[in-house]
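hey can u check if this looks right to u? its 579 residues, i copy pasted from the old doc so theres a chance i mangled smth
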Amino acid sequence: MADTPTQDGQVAKLATPLGKDKLCLTRFEGSEAIGELFEYRIEAVSTDPNLDFNDALGQTCSVHLETTDRSGRDFSGILTEAKWAGMRDNLPLYRLVLRPWPWIMSLRSHCRIFANMNVKDIVKEALGNNSFGPIVDLMVEDYPTLEYTVQYRETSLNFALRMMEKFGIYYYFKFDKGDGGSPSQHYLVLADSANHEGLPAPSSILYVPPSAAGPDDTQLFNDWSRQQAVIAGIFELNDYDYNKPNANLLTHEAYFTPPSHSLVYDYPGGYDDKSLGDRLTKVRQEAERVFEDHCSAGGYAPSLTPGYSIQRKSQDGDSQDSDYLILRCNHWYGDQSYASTSSRGGSYSGNYELSRVAIPYRMPLRTRRPVIIGSQPAKVISKENQEIDVDKQGRVLVEFYWDDTTGSNAPNKTPSRRVRVGQFWAGLQRGALFTPRVGDEVMIEHENGDPDRPIIVGSVYNGTSDNPGNLVPLDLPGRKTVSGLLGKSSTDGGSTLKNANAWWFDDARGSEQFYVRARKDLYFRAYNNQNIRINANVAEAVGGNETINVGPVDEEGAKIGGGNAGGNFTLNAFQSITL
C-alpha cells in the first residue's frame, strides 16, 4: 500500500476545495437527465480519518474521467453530502454526493408575487439571476408578459420548474473541461428549441453488436433497443376569462399516430387568451410525444451528456442510424484502487436513453402546483394614496400578509392585481355594490385553488381596544341586538360616527327600532303610491323649509307646470286638524 495515495496517472480524478489528493476517488456513480437535477455519488479514500468538510460543503467539486478516445468528460457539482463510510485498502473511506447548483433553490421557499413580468424573467428571477450559479440562456421563442404570477409556499426550484413545464422551457447542464487538478464549473442551460447543440466530442457514437468487437480507442454502444408506445393523440384545454365572459377559450391540438384515439381534456388551462391557450396545449401534446418513440442503449460512452445531440453510426449502416437527443445517462465507474502504485484504475459502464431530434422535447407536467384551500386575510391598499381605490369593474388592490416580495423587513410590498369583489347579488345593471376601502381587512379565496386567481369574498373587523385596528362600529356586547349598515363620509370622514350614513335595526325586545340616517340628503322615490300607517304619534321637525307639490311630476320627481293647481290635497283627522 502506498503511504500517501495519489490520483496521478489514474483514469478518474476527484477535485475538491480541500486540495489535491486530499480525497482520491475509488468509485463513481452518476445519474443525469434532461429536465432533471443530476446526482453524482462518489467514494473516495483519504489519509485523514477525521476529515472536516466545512470548507467543501456547498462548494464546487468535480470528477474528471479520462476516456479511451482522449476526449474526456467532467462531472461537476456542489458538494451537498459527505460522510465517513469505513475503511478501504487500510485507508479511511468517505462517501460524497454532488448535485447541481440549482439544487440550492430547493432549500429556498417563498411566498411572493411577480407583477407584470415576462415568463423568461420570472424563471430566471426564481433561479437567482446568476447569483447562485451561471445560467446560459438559449431560449429563442417569445414569451408573454404575465400580469400576476404567485409563488406560494413552495421552493423556488418547484416554482421555476412548473413555470418551465407549463410554457415549454426545458433545461440541462453544460460542463467545463478540466484535468482533475482543480474543480471545473457547470452551467444551467435554459432552452426551448428543437435545434439541439451537438456534443462537442465525440460527435458520433459507433454501434457495435454484442457479438462483434469494436475498436479500443472509440466510445461505442454495444446494446441498442427501440421502444414505441401508444400515446394520447388529442389534447384540449379550456378556461374562462371574466373580462370576456362569452369568449370561447377551448383549444385543440391533435397528433395523429396509429392508433389515435385518446383525448386528454383539462380545465382550467391557466390562460385568458386563446392564442396563449393554443400554445400551452401544443406544449402539453409535445411533452407526450417524448414517450412515443425513444431508444435505450448501453456501452462505453462516458462523454454522453443529456441535452446534447449525438449521431449514431453503425459498421454496416442500418435504419437506426440517425441524429438523437440524449435524454438520460447513468454512469458507473469502479473500482479504482490505491493498493499498489501500478494500479491504473477501474472500469466504466453506462446506459443511456435517446430520442430522435425530429421529435420536439418538452418537459412533462410533473411538478406539483400549490393549491390554496379556504380563505385568507388581506389588506386593501392604494397605489395613489386614495381612500377608495377602485376601477370600473369594482376591483380593488390588496396586499397579502404572506407576501415577502421585498424582504421580511422591507416596508413596501408588491400589491396584488386588481381583485374582484364578491357581492351577495350581481347581474346586468342590477345587484348589490359594496366597495372595500383602503385599510379594510378582506377575506380572499382563489378560483379552483389557483394562487394566481384571487377573489374577495367578504370583509372582517380586526384589532382590540388595546390594539385598535378596524374595530366594530358599535359597542359590543352591549349593543348585541343591533344589526345594519354604517358607512363613513369620504374623504377624511374621521373617527366619529356622525360623519356617516347609517341603516340599522335593533331587535331588543320592547325597544325594537329601525333607524335610517343620511349624513346630508335623504331621497325617497315612489313611481306609484306611498302608503304609511302609524299606530301612535308622528313628530316632525324641519330646520329649514318644507315644500309639498301636489300634481303631475316627471320621472325625476319635479312638478310639471306652474302654480299650485293640478291635483287634490286632502287631510283627514279622527278628532281635529290644527293649521
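The CA atoms of residues 442 and 543 lie 40 Å apart.
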